[in-house]
């Protein structure tokens, strides 16, 4: 099984389409994480580009400016910037998704200045007061973009952008639904390529690619039953196929995920209301992410259910036989959340393998034995 050639090309030639659009006169704005609304950038006629690192390249320049014990994903992104790999960006936006991203934003801004830079202060606590605060942050973000572009935000264009991205979200959920088959007709490796390809192109172009890929997958013959375990992935950044491919090569189907680069960024639609800014604030702040905290609910078991109940639904609907946590080393938020989630999933009788890795393909081979042993245990 393989993805279509356009998706394959975009996956391997990251930034190529955004660079071409920049060269054609479009302004491209890079951003990090799931908390920057693409819809706002698109409504201003800008091209959103989700910044990625490189798991196959050593971090050889960034460590002089960003401490080596910081998240290697952030260091890798900054390393590529220092090498000029993001010179097609007309600006970049970072949310305060974690302390490392915030520190990197300021260091990046000081060492690689661009025409537009902005930091969005995202509340950690979820609730009505946080929604109001985040709306104010988005209003300030819009004001900064109005200053940068020289034009006021057109609310009808913003509503149109919301409809566009909701269409993409619908298609990606439809693609994920195809993984509920046993065995699935589409692999986790293919899904990763589809998602990464979409991070560097306009949403309308990604919609066309995803729609065509769904049609191609549906035409595939149903695979014969193989008895392989079905795996749920949880963690932060997996923007390279190496780890997912390893799990599948070891004899499993990766059928569902809760990742920054997976379901987390597209699972919930933006409500199409008369107040699009408010709708964006509520939707983005409700993103399920380890850095976001819900008010404590009841006793320990009730609190875990309040925090992780949506994952129980994933496990049930996609019939996962086990979970693998892939945590990029020094990610404080995932390392703090991981043990609680493991406790919750263990209570559901779901086996869990927790892996901490260096955001590098050079370490992938060392994980093979651990993954094989885990899969043998749950078969």
Give the tags.
379 residues, alpha/beta, Rossmann fold, 4-stranded parallel beta sheet, 14 helices, 8 strands
CATH fold label of the domain at 10-156: Rossmann fold
Distance between the termini: 24 Å
N-to-C order of helices and strands: HHEHEHEHEHHHHEHEHHEHEH
Q: What level of helicity do the residues show?
A: 40-55%
- In what range is the share of β-strand residues? 5-15%
Radius of gyration, taken over Cα atoms and rounded to an integer in Å:
20 Å
- CATH architectural designation of the domain at 10-156: 3-Layer(aba) Sandwich
Biggest beta-sheet profile: 4 strands, parallel
What does this structure look like?
The radius of gyration is 20 Å and the shape is globular. With 379 residues, the protein is an alpha/beta fold. The chain is 48% helix and 11% strand. The strands form 2 sheets. The chain has a 4-stranded parallel sheet with strand order 2-1-3-4, with helices on both faces. It has a 4-stranded parallel sheet with strand order 6-5-7-8, with helices on both faces. It has a domain of 147 residues: 3-Layer(aba) Sandwich (Rossmann fold), CATH 3.40.50. The two termini are 24 Å apart. The longest helix is centred in the middle third of the chain and has 23 residues. It is built from 14 helices and 8 strands.
